[in-house]
Write a structure and sequence with these properties.
With about 220 residues, the protein is an alpha+beta fold. It is built from six helices and six strands; from the N terminus they run H-E-E-H-H-E-E-H-H-E-E-H.
């Protein structure tokens, strides 16, 4: 017996000369559509909630509107905007403006165990609104040293033995420059002179360019 024909006849059967779809098939289809719509609604709600959470944090750390110098588009470093009391008073008097604060930024770099990371330092003035930061610094956790004085209940980072030995017994050398190794093995190449450093930097840049071109 052809089982596909049997299933088709069970779903689409004839009754008293009229063809109709069986009730179980209709119920299965209805439940499938309902479950699919429910999953879509939940997914959209999660995405919208996540979007609002990210937006609130971005606005809380920064602002809804940032006024910058046009020349600042060419660099991460803030080009000063002359903001006298008259300009600040005019901004504060505008409808819908809750708070006005000055800030500045400065690009920088952080060296990790195996790489360099770019960062942007932000400086704020005395009128900065700390409400958002203080709210998140008051998270009820034993690791929150802003709320609970003293050491946390367990280490948050355990440096390896080699790092401790390097701090306790530093090596005497004349190195002034360092650059990530072109071997990309997490090590660095050190140099005494700037010309040596440039040589190491060019080697690293060539290898970085080669790796990117292969992707």
């Amino acid at each position: 017996m052809d089982w596909k024909l049997f299933v088709a006849r069970r779903i689409y059967r004839s009754k008293e000369g009229e063809k109709e779809v069986s009730k179980p098939a209709v119920l299965i289809a209805m439940w499938g559509i309902a479950i699919g719509l429910a999953v879509m609604i939940v997914a959209v709600a999660v995405v919208i909630g996540f979007k609002h959470e990210v937006r609130d944090k971005v606005v809380g750390i920064g602002s809804d509107i940032a006024i910058t110098n046009f020349d600042a588009q060419k660099s991460y470093e803030t080009v000063p905007v002359v903001a006298g009391d008259s300009l600040l008073d005019a901004l504060r008097s505008m409808e819908g403006v809750k708070h006005v604060q000055r800030y500045s930024t400065k690009p920088g770099m952080i060296m990790t165990e195996d790489n360099f990371l770019g960062m942007v330092l932000k400086g704020v003035s005395q009128e900065y609104d700390w409400t958002f930061l203080k709210k998140h610094l008051q998270v009820d956790s034993p690791y929150n040293t802003y709320k609970y004085a003293g050491l946390p209940p367990a280490p948050i980072n355990v440096p390896p033995k080699a790092c401790l030995e390097a701090v306790l017994s530093p090596e005497n050398h004349k190195y002034l420059y360092f650059c990530a190794s072109p071997d990309f093995d997490g090590t660095h190449r050190f140099a005494v002179t700037y010309s040596e450093h440039q040589k190491n930097a060019r080697a690293f840049q060539r290898e970085l360019t080669r790796r990117r071109s292969q992707k």
